[in-house]
Amino acid sequence: MSFVLTIRLLATILPAFAVFLTTLRLYYRWSRRHLGYDDAWAAFAVFCAFFMTAGAWTRSDTPATGPFHHSLHVRIIGYYMLNVSFTCVLWASRMSILFSIIRLIPYLMAMRIHAHICAILFGMMWVALIIQKLVICETNTTWKHLPGAQCVLGHSVGGLELATDFLADIILVFLPAKLLWNIKLSFSKRVLLMGIFSASMFTTVVSVVHGVYVFSENRNAEGILAHIEASTALMVCNLAVLVPWFTRALGHRDGSEGSPTPGTSTGATPAKDLTTLRFHHPAPIVLHALDLESVQPSTTRSVHTCASGEEIAPMTFADNRSRKSLSIVLGQAV
């Protein structure tokens, strides 16, 4: 199989499957009116994936190959499309994972501020990589006169890519691990969630292999690994949404605690949108699941009684747009 056929197949099939998964994710979130910033980043990654595929087809469309028999100038434009959109797909997918984690962090936790600082750091690394690639490709323009129409990025880009990829994926594993460590969950649920958020390490493995070929002289393998890495990142960013959805669709429940609402029998508990999360802290924050149908789009108030008999008034927040509500109870451990 020739390189042109291989790169076109990979640049079409892998992003197409990743786009399909992202479309399922966006449909699910839209149908439940739970769209958020993480979904916006995923949608932006899909938008960039189309440019990545178009760039791969344009760059490989030589006068002898077709189907459009592009000139060298057009193929150089295709390479820039491919190079920039690859970086955008990769980092937009990481942004989506990061903002999925931020959605799980209560507003009163300092970790939420740390996560937003990480988002700024991700943005800086994203921009730095694009600028570095453009500067190198525009400084040494010898590649623009070669039939391959591919810039030699060199060791500096390979080193920065490996460093930023490793740092970003470590953050994407550390944040949810620290969050889930202080949450009361069953062992199976904890393993499931950690497995979902640790899946970003698959992207790290592919990025290491891609970085090795960036250091080498094998430009064909570098291009192939770039498509695999970007598509893997886009697939992984959807796991935090699709895996729980498929798990519920198969009839598995999370076994979380929940109090029946008034008018509901003790044996039948209504469907919940949020599980009860208990943070082990001297003054814990407890997130109680609420029945969305019983919540009006306005601030409500109820009273909970802790084990010591002291009544604690929770603060309930309702969002008119997403109809998502949280009951945050501050006090002693329940």
What would you say this structure looks like, in words?
60% of the residues lie in helices and 6% in strands. The longest helix has 33 residues, at 72-104. Strand 1 (277-278) and strand 2 (285-288) form a beta hairpin. The protein is built from nine helices and six strands, in the order αααααααααββββββ. The relative contact order is 0.11. With 334 residues, it is mainly alpha-helical. The strands form two sheets. The protein has a four-stranded antiparallel beta sheet with strand order 1-2-6-5, with no helix packed on it. A two-stranded antiparallel ribbon has the order 3-4. The model is unreliable at 254-334 (pLDDT under 50).
Termini separation (Å)?
A: 64 Å
Judged by helices, strands and strand pairing, the structural class is mainly alpha
Number of DSSP strand runs: 6
The unreliable regions are 254-334
Task: Tell me the helix content.
Answer: 55-70%
Largest beta-sheet characterization: 4 strands, antiparallel
Q: What is the element string, with H for helices and E for strands? A: HHHHHHHHHEEEEEE
Strand order of the largest sheet: 1-2-6-5
Portion of residues in beta strands equals: 5-15%
Backbone CA Rg? 24 Å
What is the overall number of helices?
9
Shape: globular
- Mean pLDDT over the full residue set: 78
